């Protein structure tokens, strides 16, 4: 199995890049694991306590479960990937049966912060977009798709997202094999990754 890790700050376009890669490859050949599915289970907390979690700090992620699942997939085992709700700020309780594929992509803001996870990745990619561009995209997306309003996004941006990005996420660029500039849609970079995957398939 070829494991590709795709990191980069919120709104840089990780999910969009992954979808573009998937769209043009044969159905079912490439699997995706989202770091968001591995936010720690917070069922024991009240809704108000969950809202105040710092979701941009590495400790918010259940890296033990994530790395265990990636190792299982590498060992050709099926896993039950948790499902996550950005509206409830918690796992939904449902899981998606995820089968091992010749190529698996794991994507998320913090995946290159974890040394064990980095070592599991055969190719490490960092998607870069400027912070103003990312904030604009995040505002539009979170209001349209994640049940947020202007005040929620800006408050989270100032209080946790921006400082965590500077402290934990941006520095992981140095671990990347490939950095994709993504202020604009980068068709050439997506084509290069698609070709690497097509060779493996
Ligand atoms: N290169 C790009 N140019 C303009 N908008 C983009 C670009 N890449 C992604 N977007 C948009 O920005 C928003 C966030 O992108 P997304 O792929 O969800 O980012 P991430 O997964 O890194 O948080 C989405 O609404 C997406 O359509
Ligand atoms: N309940 C949550 C959990 C996470 N977030 C934010 O999601 C961002 C990571 O996801 P991307 O798709 O944008 O990479 C991260 O910046 C968290 O702040 C959230 O708002 N609510």
CATH third-level topology:
Rossmann fold
| Domain tally | 1
Question: Could you give the order of strands across the largest sheet?
Answer: 2-5-1-6-7
Terminal CA distance: 10 Å
- Can you say what the CATH homologous superfamily is? P-loop containing nucleotide triphosphate hydrolases
CATH C-level: Alpha Beta
Number of strands: 7
Helix fraction bin: 40-55%
What features would you describe in this structure?
By secondary structure, the protein is α/β, with parallel strands linked by helices. It has one domain (2-200): 3-Layer(aba) Sandwich (Rossmann fold), CATH 3.40.50. The chain contains seven helices and seven strands. It has helices at 14-23, 47-51, 63-74, 115-120, 131-145, 150-169, 187-200; strands spanning 2-7, 30-34, 79-85, 90-98, 103-107, 123-128, 178-181. The strands form two sheets. It has a five-stranded parallel beta sheet, with helices on one face. The N and C termini lie close together (10 Å). 32% of the residues are buried. The mean pLDDT is 96. The structure holds adenosine-5'-diphosphate and ligand L45E5XJ5. Residues 3-187 form the Phosphoribulokinase/uridine kinase domain. InterPro entries: P-loop_NTPase, PRK/URK, Uridine_kinase-like. It is an enzyme of class 2 (transferase). This is Uridine kinase. Its EC number is 2.7.1.48.
Keywords:
201 residues; alpha/beta; binds adenosine-5'-diphosphate; binds the ligand Nc1ccn([C@@H]2O[C@H](COP(=O)(O)O)[C@@H](O)[C@H]2O)c(=O)n1; Rossmann fold; two-stranded antiparallel sheet; 41% helix; 5-stranded parallel β-sheet
Element layout with pairings:
Elements: E1 2-7, H1 14-23, E2 30-34, H2 47-51, H3 63-74, E3 79-85, E4 90-98, E5 103-107, H4 115-120, E6 123-128, H5 131-145, H6 150-169, E7 178-181, H7 187-200
Helix pairs in contact: 1-7, 5-6
Bound molecules: adenosine-5'-diphosphate and ligand L45E5XJ5.
EC number: 2.7.1.48
Catalytic activity: cytidine + ATP = CMP + ADP + H(+); uridine + ATP = UMP + ADP + H(+)
Pfam families: PRK
